[in-house]
Design brief:
With 325 residues, the protein is an alpha/beta fold. The chain contains 15 helices and seven strands.
Length: 325
């Protein structure tokens, strides 16, 4: 009996075996752009295929487990995206059979339901790397990113209000979809650390990646058992309030010119040019001390969980004093 296309593909090994699962605004894109340069690691141009999110959404829809309107709409959006079939997804890795690692940088951290699908489809020995960051800074960076994308939010406090935070009131019960939950890394990491053996799981701290990328990446390469490799410095996701709104919008739009440059100019050079423009275009904002203290208090107990898990002093994350993205 002949093997199915799926089985043949798995024998050939053209499946992802390195997952950068997030988190959002924690340096995942920067790490992706670094790893993209390594000759023994292959990442497709599509950073976040989200294939396994589609699997989970379809499964929940079939079992009628989606009850909220937003869940149903989100599932429709996910299941209508590209890479609907295994063959389409695997096509991203065509020609990369002989590369040591084939990566997927979808933000699966926030979707632990994908774990079983990943283990079943790609086997249990895949490597999982997650980027984590001071959750207060992460949240503020997400706000600044929304501003960069063209949101008309007037202040960070207005942004928090939309997420269920009321000034002067304790944050005990927040909406389940609140963006604040994206920074509860102690809680978010648990199912992933339970599912994958310690040698196959790696956490990368944002401060290390941005502050000392050479040493951080050398450590990652050692963990992956591949050779060290000189990489060009990256910082690809700056955020802030645009000084010139139309220019920021143009940079984020897909035009004939941008498509032409994508084919003509090497990826590393394009990213460096983009970063240089954003560095001058974006204006920084500061978080008020009162708001920072409120958020630091909210995240404090979860941060202590991370300190225990990684045996690392994160007292600066619990401090009401910090630096913004």
């Amino acid at each position: 009996m002949s093997e199915s296309k799926n089985e043949i593909s798995k024998v050939c090994g053209a499946t992802p075996n390195l997952f950068c699962i997030g988190g959002m605004r924690c340096g995942t894109t920067t790490l992706y752009n670094y790893l993209f340069q390594h000759p023994q690691i292959f990442f497709p141009e599509v950073k976040e295929p989200g294939f396994f999110l589609k699997q989970v959404a379809q499964e929940k829809s079939n079992r009628q487990l989606l009850t909220e309107d937003w869940e149903i709409e989100n599932a429709k959006k996910i299941t209508s995206q590209r890479f609907q079939t295994w063959e389409e997804y695997q096509g991203l890795y065509e020609g990369a059979e002989n590369v040591a690692y084939r990566g997927d940088a979808s933000h699966y951290l926030y979707h632990p339901e994908t774990i079983d699908h990943i283990k079943k489809t790609c086997n249990e020995s895949v490597r999982i790397v997650v980027c984590i960051r001071n959750p207060v800074e992460r949240l503020f960076s997400e706000y600044l990113y929304q501003i960069r994308q063209g949101s008309d939010i007037r202040s960070f406090e207005e942004f928090l209000s939309a997420e269920g935070v009321e000034s002067g009131k304790p944050m005990i019960e927040l909406p389940s979809r609140s963006r604040l939950s994206k920074g509860l890394f102690g809680k978010l990491l648990r199912p992933w650390m339970d599912a994958f053996a310690p040698p196959n799981f790696r956490a990368v701290f944002f401060e290390d990646l941005i502050g000392n990328p050479t040493q951080t990446l050398a450590s990652i390469f050692e963990w992956l058992a591949i050779s060290d490799f000189p990489l060009q410095k990256q910082h690809s996701q700056r955020s802030g309030r645009p000084r010139v709104a139309w220019l920021a919008k143009l940079l984020q739009s897909k035009t004939i010119i941008s498509s032409f440059l994508k084919k003509l100019v090497p990826r590393v050079v394009r990213l460096r040019m983009r970063d240089s423009i954003y560095k001058r275009l974006l204006k920084k904002e500061k978080m008020s001390e009162a708001t920072r203290k409120l958020l630091a208090d909210y995240y404090s107990s979860d941060i202590r969980v991370l300190e225990d898990v990684f045996s690392r002093d994160l007292s600066s994350w619990r401090s009401p004093v910090g630096v913004s993205d």
